[in-house]
Design goal:
The protein is an alpha/beta fold. The chain has helices at residues 4-13, 22-28, 46-52, 69-78, 109-119, 133-137, 149-159, 182-188; strands spanning 34-38, 57-62, 83-87, 98-103, 123-130, 163-169, 175-180. α5 links the parallel β4 (98-103) and β5 (123-130). Bound molecules: S-adenosylmethionine (SAM).
Amino acid sequence: MWKLAERYERYIKDKKDFSLHMEKVYRLTNHNDTVVEIGGQFGIGSSTAFAMARPAHLICIDILKQDKFESFLTACEYEGINVEYWIMDSLETTVPPCDILFIDSYHTYEQLKQELSLHGNKSRKYLIFHDTATYCCGNTGQDAKSPGLLAAINEFKAVNSQWCEVYKTEECNGLIILLNSNSLSLEKEGK
Ligand SMILES: C[S@@+](CC[C@H](N)C(=O)[O-])C[C@H]1O[C@@H](n2cnc3c(N)ncnc32)[C@H](O)[C@@H]1O
């Protein structure tokens, strides 16, 4: 059985499409965080990076059950990581309040707009989006329709002004991180 650290190092070494984001996501995640990941797929990329940070609770959601995800669950169980695997459509799921919401599902404007409207404000601290360079800068989504992901993110920010962009890269298909500025005042008040 692969240990989580081995899976993590191996994924980075193999230079896959999330490799350059693994450490970013790992460092952002705290031990007392609840993390919700939409689009876990095989459990080899983002799921492993979050699990490596040993959050209090990790919920991995995917519309498709993947057999390969089982080895990730086994590694988590062996290392005492509290992880749940939900086979659900993100548009028909109730996401619980969380500290980090990571979205990497069907990369279209309509999908992300609905995911943000349903779940965006469930996150107390961070919203993280993958594939933002692939499906926003060309201004088309995975459905080849315009606009792409960036428009959905910008529209969400425009009506939820507490969310500010704190990180953006176009490497490895792009990653955008928004910070909930309300979390800073809660931290100051010691809550
Ligand atoms: C790009 S892959 C995710 C890759 C993964 N984050 C990683 O780092 O390896 C996108 C995943 O989103 C899932 N997905 C697509 N539409 C979805 C939906 N409506 N609800 C939940 N998951 C969805 C797909 O089944 C697929 O596994």
